[in-house]
Amino acid sequence: MIKPIQANRVASRTILYILLVIVLLFMAFPIYYMVITSLKTPSEAYRLPPTLWPQTLTVESYPFVIEAWSYWRTLANTILVAGTAALAATILGGISAYGFSRMEFPGKAILYGMLVATIAIPGMVTLGPIFLAYKDLPLLDTHMGLILVFAAEFIPVAFLTMFSYFKAIPKELDEASAVDGSRLIDTMFRIIFPIALPGFAVTFLLLFIAGWNDFLFAFTLTITPDTRLLTVRLFEVPVREGVNRTPYDLIAAGGVLILLPLIPILLRVQRQLVEGVLAGAVKE
Amino acid sequence: MLVAYWIVLPAILLRLAFTVVPLVQTLYLSFTNSSLMGHPRFIGLQNYVALFQDQTLLSSLTFTIVYTVASITIETILGLLIAILLMQNLQGRWISNFLMLLPWVMAPLLAATVWKIMYYEDGGILNEVLRDLGIIHEPVRWLSDATTAKFSVIVVTVWKNLSWCILIFMAGLGALPRDVYEAAEIDGANAIQKFFDITLPLLKPTTYLVLMFRGMGEIQTFEQISGLTRGGPGTATQTLALYAYQRFFQELRYGYGSAINILLLLLTVAIGGFFAWRLYRASR
Asked: Which of A97, B100, B135, B177 is the most buried (most CB within 10 A)?
C-alpha cells in the first residue's frame, strides 16, 4: 500500500514535470519549427495548413541561402570581427580589472563609478555621432571600425566578470610572488592570469556571442556586402526567381545557419552560466 | 603608483571614447537643426519643444513605457517561477538547461525572425495549432492588428530575455542560506509560506537587479521591432529607439533625432537609477 504522504509526493512530482514540459515547449518550439521549416521542400513550406513534420526531408534550401548571402565570406567576417573585439575587450578589461582588484590609487572610486555608469548609455544614443565620425575618418564600412565599437561595447562585461574572478583569487598568491622579487606586471602575467585562464575563456566566449548577435552597429556601420556580418543578412530575404510568396523555407534556413555555429559555444559555457558566472559579474 | 594608471586606464579610455564622447556630441546636436543639407544652426530648445507636439513621438513614448513595464513584469515573475522549477532536482537537467538557454544565445533579430515564421497569418503554425485546439475560430492577425501586434512583440521580447532572468534568479536562489529554511520547517511552515515569508524577501536584491538590467534593455528595444513590425501597423508598435533611428538615419535629421535620443537616455538613466537605488537599499 502506498502511504498518503508518498502518493502526495508522486503527485507533486508529476505536476512539476508537466510544468517543466510546458516551459520547455514554449522555449524550444519556435526553434524546432524554424529547423523543421528549413528542411521542407519549397512547395511544402507554402502549403496550408503547415506541417509539424516535413513529409519530404530536404536540405535544398541551404545551398540557395549560402549562395545568396555569400555565407562563407560573411561567416569569416563575423568570426574576424566578433573574435578580435571579444579578445581585445577580454584582455583590456581583464588587465584593468586586475589593477582595480589589487592596487590603491587616487581616483579609483571615481574611475570605477564612471566605467559602471556608462552601462546606462544606450547604443542608439552613441550610434549617430559614431556614424558621423566614422564617415570622416574614414572608418565607415571597415572591419576595424566595427572591432573598435564592439570592443568598447564589451569592456564593462569583461571588466566586471574578471573583477569578480580576481577578487576570488587570494591576494597571498600575489604577495608570495612579490617576496620572490618579481614585479607587478610579471606577477600579473606569470602567476595570476594563468590561474584566471578559465575565467578569461568564458568571458571571451560570452562576448563572442554578443558580437555575433549585434545588429544595430553592424547594420549601420557597414554598407557593402563584402563587409557585412551574419546577423545583418537576416534583413536580406533571399528570393527565388519568379516566386511571389515569402520563402519561409529560405528564411528559416538562414536562421539555422546563423544559430548553428553558436551551439558548440553554448554547450561549452552552459555549465558556467547555470552556476552563476553572469550573476557574479552583474552583482559587483 | 603611476603604473596603476597604465594598467587600468586603457580599457576605461576606450570605453569613454565610444560612450561619453558621442553622448556629449548627441547632446550638442540636439540643440541644433543639423541635417544632411544646409549649415547647422544653434536653435536652443526648439527640438525639445517640437518633441512634445509630435503625435508620433508621444504615441511611441507611451508604447515604449507600456511595453517596458509589461515585459519586465512578466519576465521577472516567470523568470523567478521557472528558476524555482529548474532548481527542483528534476531529471534531465542538462537538456532542460540547454533548451532554456537557446533563446538567450540568439540575436534579438533572429528571435524576431523565428516568431515571424510562426505569426504568419494565413495558415501560419500558431493559428493552425490554436484552431486545432479549439481556442480560436478566426485566424488571429498577430502582426497586422494594432492591439494584437503590441501583444505579439511583447511575447517575443519575453521569450528572448526570459533565459537571462532565469539564470540570474537561479544564481540568487542558489545563494540563499539553507538554515533559514530548516528553521522554518521545524516551525511547521509549508511551501507557500516559505516562498512568501523567506524566498521573496531574501530575493529582493536579485529581483531589483533583474528589473534594473531588463528595464534598461527593454526601454531601448529596437531590433525585435524592426524585425517583426517595423513599428507598424501605423505607429502601433513604434518604440522611441526605432523612431530616433528613422529620424536620424532615414530622414537624416540629426538634430531632431538627437533630441529623441536624449529623451531615450533620460528614460534609461531614470529606470536604471531607480532600480539601482532600490537594489542598493535592499542589499545593505
From this structure: A97
* Residue A244: strand, helix, or coil: coil
* Residue B266 touches chain A, beta carbons under 8 Å: no
Instruction: Report the helix count and the strand count for chain B, using DSSP H and E.
Output: 14, 0
Query: Do the chains contact at B18 and A130, CB–CB below 8 Å?
Result: yes
Closest approach of B169 to chain A, Cα-based (Å): 9
Crossing angle of helices B254-282 and A123-136, rounded to 10°: 140
Which of B230, B227, B237 has the alpha carbon at shortest distance from B117? B227
Tens digit of each residue's pLDDT (9 = 90 or more) over A220-264: 999 998 999 999 998 888 878 777 777 888 999 999 999 999 999
Q: How confident is the model at residue A29 (pLDDT cuts 50, 70, 90)?
A: very high
User: Measured between CB atoms, which of A50, A124, A152 is closest to B14?
Assistant: A152
Q: Which cell numbers hold the place of B118?
A: 510562426
Interface residue of A124, A132, A258 to substitute, partner B, most B CBs within 10 Å: A124
Instruction: For chain A, state the CA radius of gyration.
Output: 24
Q: What is the pLDDT of residue B58?
A: 96
Indicate yes or no: CB of B113 within 8 angstroms of CB of A255.
Answer: yes
The three-class DSSP label of residue B42 is strand
Minimal C-alpha gap between A141 and chain B (Å): 15
Three cell numbers, residue B201: 524577501
Query: Cβ distance A284 to B215 under 8 Å?
Result: no
Q: What is the pLDDT of residues B188-227, one digit of tens each?
A: 888 888 889 889 999 999 999 999 999 999 999 999 999 9
The answer to whether the CB atoms of A133 and B22 lie below 8 A apart is yes
Q: What is the pTM of this model?
A: 0.93
> Which are the contacts of B12, defined by CB distance < 8 A and separation ≥ 6?
A96, A111, A114, A115, A155
Q: How confident is the model over B40-62, as a mean pLDDT?
A: 93
Any residues with CB less than 8 A from the CB of A134 and at least 6 apart, and which?
A: A140, A145, A221
Sign of CA dihedral B102, B245, A129, A78: positive
Instruction: Tell me the helices (H) and strands (E) count for chain A, helix number first.
Output: 16, 0
Q: Residue B170, Cβ neighbours under 10 Å: how many?
A: 26
For helices B2-29 and A143-167, the axis angle rounded to 10 degrees is 130
**Between A173 and A253, the higher pLDDT residue:** A253
CA distances from B66 to B69, B148, B239, B268 (A): 5, 14, 10, 14
pLDDT of residue A2: 54
ipTM value, please give it: 0.93
A161 touches chain B (CB under 8 A): no
- DSSP letters spanning A14-52: HHHHHHHHHHHHHHHHHHHHHHHHHTS-HHHHH-SSPPS
Q: Which residues of chain A lie closer than 8 angstroms to B101, CB-CB?
A: 266, 270, 273
